[in-house]
């Protein structure tokens, strides 16, 4: 008979529990170290706990254009809404997609929620307007005559032959006017583009501004956030308006703009691409058949004008995002070239495309929570969690006595893992701890404790059968393991389904429940079981001390199991 191999692990046993515990401690140290290294030592709080406004928007496509609700268009919509929210002067606002057709906007406390709802809940309005006048963004405007004839300072605005430096702000983060060249696509370098003919300045292609509008333009201070927002509020496409934007030097400029000649629906597509011949980023635009006619007509007029009347302002929600010069008559397609980086070119292309998207958004829910109410809800949630934890601890200590040490240490490990992961997931994926998520964490206390109870009861069953502690620990593990895995699988499945089919704050509950369920499996397998294996070697537990929770007499154990051997009676030779 072959001798058994040395070091072979018993069925269901664990050969080196010390190594498993050491590995678990290393993982915990790494998570805690990463948390302190990142500087995010506390989980990010949701709006319902920190205070602020949460708006849930649902994308709605025009009839027959349901395919417009797709990932690309939704991401572009997020960029536009982020720009709107940032335009309100909001810091740390969050805009993110949720599911296929929902956008969640979280606006922290200290923001005008009513104004925020108006800004994020309306469809983007994109217009192409001729520039009548442009001046520095302050309240003191230059003399009107300076805007009707070129001057020495205007030479820097002709970007067709000498692009300016790299822009310092992206169109998606703030209104920005990039005074670049707008011309027809051509493989010819920008420097070979035809120059505007020397013609006598003609009147701008828009109605003369009224005295009140001119005064508004003169007094407009683009450095004032409220003034920028109010400048074009309520304006119609056919109105002459004033607006603000940033130039390539990241400085505010104010514009006097004529009626809209082309709107976003006339843009068929737009994208930022790299021109390999010139080695620069440009924005290519294609217009619809109707848009081509409008664009050809207005660019034919603008190309004959001096600066700045030869500029075309691209206005999104009342802000000038770009103001390129027109050097020639354009029609079905055009390109904007000049001081673009890859990101700024692609962002402007997305903005231009967004104006043509058949998307609108309905406000599904709007929730506003004050900072005081958020603090009270957080306090209430923590008190509820503390009460639930205290009840579990009392039950474990009274019923399981010494075994409760294993359960309490396991709960502590689970709490450390959960806390550190929540703190790290905040900056990583934008996870915020809201009130439903706190409820999920409280429910997880019971799920984790249930796993310990299952294992402890299996061990007690083995002791009742007459086995000593060490074999009882190993024999009980396979049976307890199956029960724990099935139970946690059902909980995780419920959390996953809830996360998929719901939106908003309920997803916080589902995410936390799913996360803590996974951590329960990790803790039981890599901490509770090896710790129990080590404690089974200690006399306090191995000998069944009355306070160990494993006293055989108290559990009603049977006499120790012994192998019986059948002894045959000797055969009498006489009988043989």
Average pLDDT: 75
Helix content: 40-55%
Number of strands: 15
Q: Per DSSP, what share of the residues sits in E-state strands of 2 or more residues?
A: 15-25%
Ranges where pLDDT stays below 50 over 5 or more residues in a row are: 1-13, 141-180, 186-207
C-alpha termini separation:
32 Å
Largest sheet: 6 strands, antiparallel
Structural class: alpha+beta
Task: Determine Rg (CA atoms, Å).
Answer: 36 Å
What letter string, H or E per element, gives the SSE order?
Answer: HHEHEEHEEHHEEEEEHEEEEHEHHHHHHH
- CA-based shape: elongated
| Helix segment tally | 15
Would you write up a description of this structure?
There is one protein chain. Residues 1-13, 141-180 and 186-207 have low confidence and may be disordered. This protein is of the alpha+beta class and 576 residues long. The protein has 15 helices and 15 strands. Strands 4, 6, 7, 8, 11 and 12 form a 6-stranded antiparallel beta sheet that branches. Strands 9-10-14-5-13 form a 5-stranded mixed beta sheet. The protein has helices spanning 17-38, 47-50, 71-87, 113-120, 211-219, 225-231, 289-302, 342-354, 371-400, 403-429, 435-464, 469-501, 506-535, 539-542, 552-555, and strands spanning 52-61, 94-98, 102-108, 126-136, 181-183, 241-246, 252-257, 262-263, 267-275, 280-287, 312-316, 319-322, 325-326, 333-337, 359-369.
């Amino acid at each position: 008979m072959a001798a058994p191999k040395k070091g072979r692990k018993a069925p269901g046993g664990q050969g080196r529990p010390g190594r498993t515990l050491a590995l678990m401690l290393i993982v915990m140290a790494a998570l805690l170290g990463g948390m302190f290294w990142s500087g995010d030592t506390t989980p990010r709080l949701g709006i319902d706990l920190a205070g602020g406004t949460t708006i849930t928007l649902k994308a709605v496509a025009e009839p027959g254009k349901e395919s417009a609700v797709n990932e690309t268009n939704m991401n572009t919509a997020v960029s536009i809404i982020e720009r709107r929210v940032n335009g309100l002067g909001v810091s740390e606002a969050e805009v993110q997609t949720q599911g296929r057709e929902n956008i969640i906007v979280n606006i922290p406390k200290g923001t005008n929620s009513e104004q925020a709802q108006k800004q994020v809940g309306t469809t983007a309005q994109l217009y192409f307007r001729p520039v009548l006048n442009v001046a520095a963004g302050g309240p003191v405007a230059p003399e009107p005559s300076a805007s009707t004839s070129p001057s020495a300072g205007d030479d820097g605005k002709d970007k067709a032959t000498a692009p300016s430096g790299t822009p310092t702000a992206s169109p998606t983060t703030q209104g920005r006017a990039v005074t670049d060249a707008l011309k027809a696509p051509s493989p010819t370098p920008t420097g070979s583009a035809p120059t505007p003919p020397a013609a006598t300045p003609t009147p701008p292609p828009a109605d003369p501004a009224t005295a009140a509008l001119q005064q508004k333009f003169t007094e407009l201070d683009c450095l004032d956030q409220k003034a920028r927002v109010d400048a074009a509020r309520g304006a119609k496409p056919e109105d002459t308006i004033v607006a603000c934007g940033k130039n390539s030097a990241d400085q505010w400029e104010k514009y006097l703009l004529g009626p809209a000649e082309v709107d976003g629906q006339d843009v068929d597509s737009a994208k930022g691409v790299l021109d390999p011949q010139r080695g620069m980023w440009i924005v290519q635009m294609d217009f619809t058949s109707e848009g081509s006619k409008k664009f050809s007509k207005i660019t034919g007029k603008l190309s004959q004008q001096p600066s700045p009347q030869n500029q075309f302002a691209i206005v999104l929600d009342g802000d000038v995002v770009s103001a390129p010069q027109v050097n020639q008559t354009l029609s079905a397609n055009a390109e904007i070239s000049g001081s673009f980086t890859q990101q700024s070119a692609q962002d402007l292309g997305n903005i231009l495309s967004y104006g043509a998207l058949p998307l609108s958004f309905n406000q599904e829910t709007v929730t506003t929570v004050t900072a005081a109410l958020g603090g009270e809800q957080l306090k209430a949630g923590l008190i509820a969690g503390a009460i639930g934890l205290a009840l579990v601890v009392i039950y474990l200590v009274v019923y399981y006595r010494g075994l409760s040490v294993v359960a309490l240490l396991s709960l502590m490990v689970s709490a450390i893992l959960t806390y550190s992961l929540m703190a790290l997931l905040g900056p990583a994926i934008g996870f915020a701890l809201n009130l439903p998520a706190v409820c999920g964490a409280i429910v997880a206390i019971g799920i984790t404790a249930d796993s310990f109870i299952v294992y402890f009861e299996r061990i007690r069953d083995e002791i009742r059968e007459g086995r000593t502690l060490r074999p009882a620990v190993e024999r009980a593990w396979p049976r307890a393991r199956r029960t724990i895995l099935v139970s946690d699988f059902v909980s995780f499945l419920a959390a996953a389904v809830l996360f998929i089919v719901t939106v908003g704050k309920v997803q916080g509950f589902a995410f936390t429940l799913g996360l803590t369920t996974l951590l329960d499996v990790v803790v039981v397998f890599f901490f509770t079981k090896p710790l129990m294996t080590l404690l089974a070697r200690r006399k306090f537990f191995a000998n069944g001390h009355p306070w160990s929770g494993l006293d055989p007499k108290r559990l009603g154990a049977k006499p120790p199991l012994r192998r019986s051997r059948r002894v045959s009676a000797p055969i009498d030779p006489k009988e043989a």
